[in-house]
Backbone:
């Protein structure tokens, strides 16, 4: 057994690597740049965490979500692997202390939110960090042609400039060929870089799209068939609660989840679902990122996602254990209308963007010429009401300002409670002698959180409650008492949406915004919407094949279990009545590709359903192919 497999077994408890993991790790250890496209649940984190354990120095990990960073830090520390993180909601002194610990301590990982990379504080420590590896998680965020562009990700290029010989590994679950190429370009990958793409085929996952049905009835029908764990994705917070309530009335064990709940509520609901105490979680897309639950049997989308990339990631949470699972997408005409209306709503006109920017700066009382690095709590509803915007205008306007690199908005930043001891050990011993009732909590803090004497450590009051046996409220009271007695510095947890200004406020006459880039992003967004709508409406092509081709997986074969494949099998397209149409279609496609409408006209078809059935049959038999843009052609 080589060293990498020994570490795999020691820290992750696995005997063998998953597909492509060993090859990816091998390239990283050779010092080569790597782009790894692995599906949701495909074991991306091991691809950088394991080689980082074999290299001297610290691994810098750029990650977009605080919750995702927090989950990975907890997973690493539970394995005895020391790790730290820096995110957008931390104060200057907290960041400074963390960076000092990263340099002077025995830490293997430093997780960073991308907007922190360009700060003067981080830059002042950069050379002293001496990274062995740079990992870029959710790497599609670096491409403005992708579905989740974050301009702060372009700051990662400064790491390449500072450490040209340090390998970079970029990881994502979904990226088109255009986005893959853009990732490599934006990160200045060396010529000998490697690209690994696992097949987008999920042979155990049956995709289905159901149009023009009564959605709640269809949902109930599926959930009553399925006793296993299920996810139901909805477009709004309000809808998650409404649907969960309707499911409960039908005696279905359901709960709801969205980003507007407190961190404690979200954690409780999440744990209940993971531990199979809740069968169905009705949620927005805030749920699922970083959650690894293998036995999900059903994922239902009650509304249409904005892109096939989003849909593939969310649907892919079903059937990770390799057992049969279903991904069902319910849609109607109102969904299609909503998707089309999003184009103009999501990409506002220049005058609206400028008006919103001025409103935000006035709201935060930021004078022109200053403001960079300032963090503000932000209440969308209160701001919209005061400045006469509707909430969607504010939401998408802020998104546009964020994508232009003017600010960073976080919908729900959870800052955990932190503690650092502010007394020396002798004084602490004397304090315990006078206050013996505090001995349990002090000893528990010292046992549970290493380094708590040296720097602010994130703590969990609920974990302290379990460890000591004291009620949660009593733990908080004891921490506050210790703070008042100047034994510890205790900062209580908080959770509010925030806006971080990335640039000084511009003068009104000098408002600068890249509207050309906004128009190009709007064009790309419209193309993604059109692809999503095509996926919903097309009934001829295997859904796995459609998804695979979108992501440049051209060798994918028909799955045989999606709704389109199943319908084709049930039509009896091989019977006599269809032979003539089959021969005509094959003869027609010999010369050039045709759309369905062009074929219908050319063949003078009276029965459109017969032609559709024939096309499904020929696609399933791989005698013809669909180019993903509306045309059919004979397979070469």
Residues:
């Amino acid at each position: 057994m080589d060293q990498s497999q020994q570490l795999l077994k020691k820290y992750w408890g696995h005997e063998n690597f998953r597909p492509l993991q060993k090859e990816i790790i091998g390239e990283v250890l050779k010092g080569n740049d790597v782009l790894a496209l692995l599906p949701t649940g495909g074991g991306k984190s091991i691809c950088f965490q394991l080689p980082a354990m074999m290299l001297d120095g610290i691994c810098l990990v750029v990650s977009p979500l605080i919750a995702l960073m927090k989950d990975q830090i907890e997973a690493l520390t539970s394995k005895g692997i020391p790790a730290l993180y820096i995110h957008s909601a931390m104060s200057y002194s907290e960041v400074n202390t963390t960076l000092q610990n990263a340099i002077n301590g025995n830490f293997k990982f430093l997780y960073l939110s991308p907007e922190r990379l360009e700060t003067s504080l981080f830059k002042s420590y950069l050379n002293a960090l001496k990274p062995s590896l740079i990992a870029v998680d959710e790497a599609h965020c670096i491409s403005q042609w992708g579905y989740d562009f974050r301009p702060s990700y372009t700051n990662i290029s400064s790491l390449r400039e500072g450490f040209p010989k340090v390998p970079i590994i970029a990881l994502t679950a979904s990226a088109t060929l255009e986005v893959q190429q853009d990732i490599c370009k934006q990160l200045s990958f060396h010529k000998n870089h490697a690209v690994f793409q696992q097949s987008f085929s999920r042979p155990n996952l049956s995709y289905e799209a159901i149009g023009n049905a009564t959605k709640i009835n269809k949902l109930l029908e599926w959930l009553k068939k399925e006793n296993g764990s299920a996810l139901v994705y909805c477009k709004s917070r309000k809808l998650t609660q409404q649907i969960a309530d309707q499911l409960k009335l039908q005696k279905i064990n359901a709960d709801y989840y969205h980003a507007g709940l407190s961190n404690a509520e979200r954690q409780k609901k999440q744990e209940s679902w993971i531990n199979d105490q809740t069968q169905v979680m009705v949620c927005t897309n805030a749920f699922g990122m970083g959650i690894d639950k293998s036995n999900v049997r059903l994922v239902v989308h009650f509304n249409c996602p904005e892109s096939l990339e989003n849909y593939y990631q969310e649907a892919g949470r079903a059937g990770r254990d390799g057992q049969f699972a279903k991904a069902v997408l319910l849609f109607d005409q109102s969904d299609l209308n909503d998707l089309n209306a999003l184009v103009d709503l999501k990409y506002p006109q220049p005058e609206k963007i400028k008006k919103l920017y001025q409103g935000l700066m006035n709201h935060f009382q930021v004078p022109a010429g200053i403001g960079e690095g300032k963090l503000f709590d932000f209440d969308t509803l209160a701001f919209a009401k005061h400045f006469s915007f509707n909430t969607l205008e504010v939401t998408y306007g802020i998104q546009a300002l964020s994508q232009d690199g003017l600010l960073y908005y976080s919908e729900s930043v959870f800052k955990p409670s932190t503690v650092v001891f502010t007394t020396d050990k002798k004084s602490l011993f004397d304090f315990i002698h006078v206050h013996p009732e505090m001995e349990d909590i002090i000893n528990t803090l010292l046992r549970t959180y290493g380094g708590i004497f040296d720097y602010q450590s994130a703590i969990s009051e609920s974990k302290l409650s379990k460890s000591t046996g004291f009620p949660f409220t009593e733990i908080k009271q004891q921490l506050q008492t210790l703070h008042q007695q100047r034994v510890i510095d205790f900062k209580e947890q908080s959770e509010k949406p925030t806006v971080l200004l990335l640039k000084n406020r511009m003068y009104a006459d000098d408002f600068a915004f890249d509207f050309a880039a906004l128009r190009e992003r709007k064009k790309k967004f419209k193309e993604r919407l059109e692809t999503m709508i095509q996926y919903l409406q097309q009934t001829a092509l295997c859904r796995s094949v459609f998804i695979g081709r979108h992501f440049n997986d051209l060798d994918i074969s028909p799955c045989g279990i999606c709704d389109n494949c199943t319908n084709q099998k049930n039509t009896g397209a091989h019977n006599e009545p269809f032979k003539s149409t089959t021969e005509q279609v094959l003869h027609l496609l010999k010369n050039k590709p045709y759309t369905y409408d062009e074929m219908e006209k050319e063949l003078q078809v009276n029965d459109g359903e017969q032609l559709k059935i024939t096309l499904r049959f020929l696609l399933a038999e791989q005698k013809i192919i669909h180019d993903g843009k509306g045309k059919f052609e004979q397979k070469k």
